[in-house]
Every structure is written in structure tokens, then in C-alpha cells.
Amino acid sequence: MSTEFTGYALEEKSLGLLEGMLSVIGDEDTAIGGMYSTRLTVVANPGDTVLQVETTMNWAPSGKLALGGVTYFYTGITATSFTGITHQDNDVSVVGVHKQHLPPSELLDLNRSRNALDAVRRAMLLDYATGDDLAVIGRNLGVMRLTFVATDDNYRDIIKALAYNPRGTMFGLELALTALVGAGNFRILEDLVNFPCTVFIEVTGSAMTSTESMGKAFFASQVNKIAAPSADDTVVINTTPQAVQSVRLADTDIVTDCRTAKPSAQHISEGVFPSHPWAAWVWNGGVLGLESRDVLVDPGGYCTFNYLGPSHLVSYYRFQRIQPQSRAEWGMVFGFDPGSVFHSGATGCKQWSFCVSDTEKAIAWGCQWDGSHLLLGFMDWTTKQLISGPGIWNPALQVDGSFQDVRVVKNGTNSVQLWLNGRLVQSMPYSSFVASSSYQTSFGCLLDSTLSPGGLTAWVKSVYHHVETQTDYWAARGTGASMEGVSPNLLSVETGIFQADRDEGKFITISGSTVTNPSGGNNNGRFLIGSVIDAQTVGVFNSLVTPPGTSARVGAGGPSRIIIDGADKFPFAFPDMLGQYIYISGSAHGNDGIYRITRILESDTGLDMAGWLTPGLRDTSNVCEVVSYPGGDPVTFVAEGGLGWCQEPDFIAETGLAWEVGDMGTFAGDTLTLPQALPLPYVSHFTRVLEVKFSQVRSGQLLRNAHVVNEMLLPPAYRYYPFYLADPLGFVRSYLDAIVAAGIIPEYETT
Questions:
Q1: Which domain does 362 fall in, by range?
Q2: Residues with Cβ < 8 Å from 681, sequence gap 6 or more?
Q3: pTM of the complete model
Q4: Is 493 contained in some domain?
């Protein structure tokens, strides 16, 4: 059978051959030295994570590309799109497209995985190398890349100036300074008669006033561990500070090893009085109890406690630096002689128990014989009986001579957990324990004259304590904060403490709010003091973001959605911030305005946090949805990123809330006057060992240099309070000191 070709078929076949030949030629050109590219087919808007293109044939399955002057990274491809688009903003990865791109914009392949010239460019061409390739070139030429060099262009200029520098000459210094601080920002002076070996370098202009983080840092604070004096409101440290960061009770982290010595034979110094250590535990052998008889160091590797009968107190105690807010853990490794006789009944727990009092509650566990088993559980320190109730499991302790590890974990004033051999056996609310004003730990066989004659023998290998109290006594606090409910961002405290020239820019924390607004939010939060109205009243911002932020993205994932990127992530606390205001500014598409937060969504799933079944859940996110303010109308944002934003609360009328403001103490010389009295009565120096953080330079924080962005909030307040230090000449010195000729001394001045 014959086949007849039409003109259309011939034309189609010819075009197919031509396209094939051009493709081969194009691929060869690319392999020799071209840039592989494709073209955009659909408008790409800020925040989009997919770029639609003509084709992705022969592109790497993931990598980077250039579009409209922006470098993008992609994680996947389809036949006609790049997916998982991100870009870099100040070394932070930001999801989505940076700015709008229109078809038919060209996308260039930056993976540099296909052509021959790329390999040469990476290895030899300084003008083209970037990133790690540029660092290799610099290292080969003896010019290392320091962390403060922000961009490849800066580093490239420095390499050109220094690697080929006519060493030690004025011309060489001019080249280097031009690269480092920019033309017009320096002067080089010489006085060959009076200072023949000195070159004076004066740095001026924008190099000294730049808001960039290069060369700027926060200096580490010093820690002074001291024994508090008998006075409750003054502390003397070992030097004169420039700034004080915090004053708090020093952590306790003590393991008492009872395998070779009795608890009372071991001492602690904690670095406060090295020549005057004190006993780790105090013997508390009431009435007929004698430590030398009742507690013995056993060659088996433990201390033996012998309960000999009525009217004995075979126990130890120690004062404890602890408060209700403290997070703590106490543990004991112990066992019982298999021949022990255990008492049953209402006072059975007195035979062996452990108790910690934190000035508010007595947290205790004990052992009680039920006729056939020795039960473990939390106990009532008043009745000396186990606390029972629905869902509480009281496991039986072994009495076969084996050792067991019992630990108690206290989570501030929230919950207390009891663990046996690494397994959680009981959890109770902190409020369930009986009241106590004491501040000590005790353990052992407790006095009970009604018990039958002795018979219990316990073996103890070790007792462990770890206590952290984060309460800052350099802060002022109270319980009488109130909101009038008329002015949405004003709050007052019960005493006059505020000063306009001192306290604007500090933080105030509010807790204990029980009222809710129509959206479900409340008055709790950590707020930035924006203005001092009078000694008792301030106007505040929501301080989880430093206003103004510049990392808001709107309309991505939903028409009324706001996402916060970058360093300000997770500013929305659920449910506290529901109903609060959020301001959007800097929009080129009409997105500016004041909005009210109606939903806070999970950052990873986008689900509404209100959907959780757990009552009282508190968490943070960087995603919220809003309605207009006023009016509460639905919002439809035009997709856009890089917008300014800040939050303000919308307080509801409420009184009697807990509050705290940091950095409210004063000092003169080495004497610190606290804004509130120290806790715990003064008994002896070991009960109130303090940790004071301070600085002898005007700073109290240490942050990674690459991530320091210290914006001015409300003059003279900065994000990182109280002081911000810059060393603009640091990076200049580090380079110039390395390139000047031997015997030449560079001196630096600023104007």
C-alpha cells in the first residue's frame, strides 16, 4: 500500500528535524560555555512557592536559579515548573518568591553542573566566583574570609586590595580601606618628623554610623557567686559594675555519695567560702537517736539506717535555696534489708520518707505497709499517710535487698511527678500538697512514739538535689496590676515605680488573667513599655515582636492570613493574643491597615490552635488570620512580603494580676540595692547564696555576630537592652594590621 504525504505533514516533519538540530547545537554551546535557561510562563507573585516555566528538561532535580536579579533555591521540578521556592534574606531562608516577576522573564541555571567554563570560573576567575568558591580563591591568596564580611562583593574587593597589595605603601592602604569602608569614609595621615613609624588612619562618615551588624557584638556578662549578707535588700559584689543584668538564687546541684561516708561527714563550699565549707546534711536524731549508733557506713558500699524503736528520729535535714517558682529534682538510691519489719496503719509513712518544703508547700513521698506490700506514693506531710485517689498507682517497693531509684520532679507551681526506676508512677497538681513555711529537705525514719519496737533497716547509696530558681530579684514585681478596659494598651500597678527617662523600652510581664475577650484572648503577656504616663501607669506594645518588625507576609495560604518570617518568628501566643491588634505598613498593594487577630494557626500544619482538645493549651506560632478593624469585616490581602508590622494589646477591664518589670535595682560602687527583699530568712550564709550577673562594659548580652540586628525601638531604647556596643574599627584593624610593612604602626581615630 502506498502512502501519500500532504504538504502539512512535510512541513511538520521538517520543523521537527530543525528543532532537533537546534537542540543539539544549543546543548553543545551550553557544554562549552553558555548558561542554561528557560522562561517564565505565569506571573510569579511574592510568597509563591512554584515557578511556572516553558520546560525544565535537563535541569537538576534540586538546586538554585536566577530570576530578575534574585537567587532562588528550589527543591523539586515537574515538566513545566520549579517547586519549593525559597530565597535568602540577611542569611535567613524565606519561603516563597521575593518580588513580582512577569513572563517571559528568563531563568538562569546557577547549579553550574553542566558546562566546561563553569569549572574554570570556579577555580580561577575572581570576578565570577561566589560563596565557597570565592573563599577558596581568597584562602589560596592568603586573605581569609572573616565572619563579619557580609557579602561576596565586599570580600571580592578585599581580596583584590590585599592579595595584590604593594605591601606597606600608602597606595596599598588606600586600596584596602576603599574596599573595607568605602571611598570617602577614611583619611590617611603621616607625620614623618615626629612619628616616622606611625600611619594615622581616621575613619569617618557612614562607616561609623552604619546600622549593619558587621563588627558589632554584645559582650559577655560576668557572674559573681556570693553569700548574701544579713540585710534583705542589699548585695555587695567583688567589683564596681557598669550594668547589672540579674540577681537570683544560685542553682543547687549536689550529689551526696553515701557509699563511703555518712551524709553529715560531707561538706560543700560552692566557691563562696572555699576555706569555710559547711555540712551537706545535719543529723536530726531526736530524743534517743544517736548518729554513731543508728547510721553506719557499711563495707557493702552504702550507709545503713537502723530504726531501733519508739522515740527515735533517725533522719537528716538541710536548708534548701528554693522557692515556689523553682524547677527542681530530688532523687534517692536506696533499698531495704530483707529482714526489715514494716509498720502498717495511719502513721506507717513515718518509717521511711522524704520531704522538701519550698516556703509554700511540703512535697513528700513515703512508704506504707498494706499487710503484704510496701507501697510508694506521695504523702500528706501532716497526717503522714499516702495520698490516694482515682487513677493513682502505688507500686510496691522491693524488699529483697535490691536498690531502687526514686525521684521527684517539681515544675514550678504547676505539677509534681514521682518516678520509680525511670518510670512515672504518680503526678499531682502542686496545689494538692499541704502548706509549709519551711525551706528545707529531710529524709529518713521520722519520730513516732506509737510505733512498735524497731526492726526497719534501710540502705542508702546516694541523695541527689538539683534546684533552679529563675526569679530575678533585680526586678520589681507585685500582684496588683490592673487594666481599666477603656484605653486598650494602658496598664497600672499598685505602687509608683516608673520613671520616663529610665523605664521606656523595658519589659513588663503580666500573668494570672482569667477574663477573655470575644475572640478568646486575655490580658496575659510580656509587653514592651512604650510610654510612661505616670509613676503607676504605662502604655505598652506587645513585646513578643519589637516594633516595627519588617518581616510580615500577607495573603500566603489564605486571603486573611499573616505570616511572620525571619528573626521575629513565633510572636503569636495562643490563646492570649486572640483579639489583639496587628498593624501592617509599607504595602505597595493596599494591604496597610489595622487588623484584629481572630485565629492563631499551627506553624507547620496551618490548623487552628483552638481545635486542640486540651483545655488551657498555651503555645506560640508565626501564623494568624485577621478581620478588619474597626468593623470586623472579612479581609482579602494581595499576596505581598517584607511588610512592616507591630502588635498592641486590647486590654479588658481586670484587676489583681501578677506583674514583673526587669532591671529596676540601683547600685553605687560595689553595693547593689534590690527593688525587692531577698527570699528566705537569714540563718547562715549557705541558705542565700546568690548569682549576680553584671558587666564592667555597658552591655549584658552575648549574641552571635551574624544575627545581631539591634533596632532602636523608642529612643533611647534598643531591642537588646540595656546597652548596645559597636566596634566599627574592629574589622579594619584585623586586616590592616596584617598588611602593613614590618616596623610600621597603624593608629586609628574616629570622628
A1: 253-465
A2: none
A3: 0.57
A4: yes
Question: What span, in angstroms and rounded, lies between the C-alpha atoms of 647 and 528?
Answer: 10
**In 3D, which of 158, 112, 117 has the Cα closest to residue 135?**
158
Residue with cell 491588634: 581
Q: Which one has a higher pLDDT value, 706 or 278? A: 278
Q: What is the total count of domains within the chain? A: 5
pLDDT bucket at 544, cuts 50 / 70 / 90? very low
Report, in this order, helix, strand and coil percent for the chain, each rounded to 5.
Answer: 15, 40, 45
DSSP conformation class of 638? P
Residues 296 and 186 in one domain: no
Residue 88 lies in a domain: yes
Residue 159: what pLDDT? 76
The three cell numbers of residue 450 are 506509737
* Confidence tier at 193 by pLDDT (50, 70, 90): confident
Tell me the C-alpha distance between 169 and 166, whole Å.
Answer: 6
CA distances from 150 to 66, 125, 135, 201, 419 (A): 20, 20, 13, 23, 51
Query: So what's the pLDDT on residue 699?
Result: 47
**How many Å apart are CA 338 and CA 44, to the nearest integer?**
78
Among 117-131, 305-319, 669-683, name the one with the lowest average pLDDT. Answer: 117-131
Kindly report, residue by residue over 400-421, the tens digit of the pLDDT. 889 999 999 999 998 999 999 9
The total number of residues shown for the chain amounts to 751
The stretch 658-683 carries a mean pLDDT of: 86
Question: Residue 7 has what pLDDT?
Answer: 38
Q: Pick from 39, 114, 47: which is nearest to 81 by CA?
A: 39
Tell whether 266 and 346 lie within a shared domain.
yes
pLDDT at 723 exceeding the cut of 70: no
The DSSP code sequence of 176-212 is HHHHHH-TTSEEEEEETTTEEEEEEEEE-THHHH--S
Q: Which residues pair with 557 in a beta bridge?
A: none
What are the contacts of 703-709 at 24+ separation with CB within 8 A?
703/217, 703/218, 705/147, 705/148, 705/213, 705/214, 705/215, 705/216, 705/217, 706/91, 706/147, 706/213, 707/91, 707/213, 707/567, 708/213, 708/216, 708/217, 708/218, 709/90, 709/213, 709/567
- Whether 657 and 678 map to the same domain: the answer is no
CA dist., res. 183 & res. 710, Å (int) = 26
Closest CA to 296 of 265, 274, 268: 265
Regarding whether 418 and 275 lie in a shared domain, the answer is yes
Q: Quick one: pLDDT at residue 545?
A: 41
The SS3 assignment for 23 reads: helix
Of 98 and 568, which is predicted with more confidence? 98
Q: Is the dihedral of CA 680, 681, 686, 688 positive or negative?
A: positive
Cβ 550 vs Cβ 494: under 8 Å: no
Q: What are phi and psi of 39, to 5 degrees?
A: -125, 150
257-272: average pLDDT: 84
245 and 265, same structural domain?
no
What CATH number did the domain enclosing 85 receive? Answer: 2.40.30
Question: Does residue 290 sit in the same domain as residue 160?
Answer: no
> What is the SS3 assignment for 439?
coil
Most confident of 131-140, 429-438, 558-567: 429-438
Please list, in sequence order, all residues whose beta carbon lies within 8 angstroms of the beta carbon of residue 196, skipping any fewer than 6 positions away. Answer: none
345 with 272, same domain: the answer is yes
Return the DSSP state at 404.
E
Question: The dihedral of CA 33, 38, 39, 44: what is its sign?
Answer: negative
Separation CA 351–CA 340 (nearest Å): 11
Last residue in a domain, options 465, 491, 509: 465
Which residue shows C-alpha cell 513580582?
Answer: 100
What separation in angstroms does the CA of 14 have from each of 11, 21, 24, 194? 5, 11, 16, 85
- Same domain as 598, residue 581: yes
Look at 266-270, 273-277, 511-515, 712-716 and tell me which has the smallest mean pLDDT.
712-716
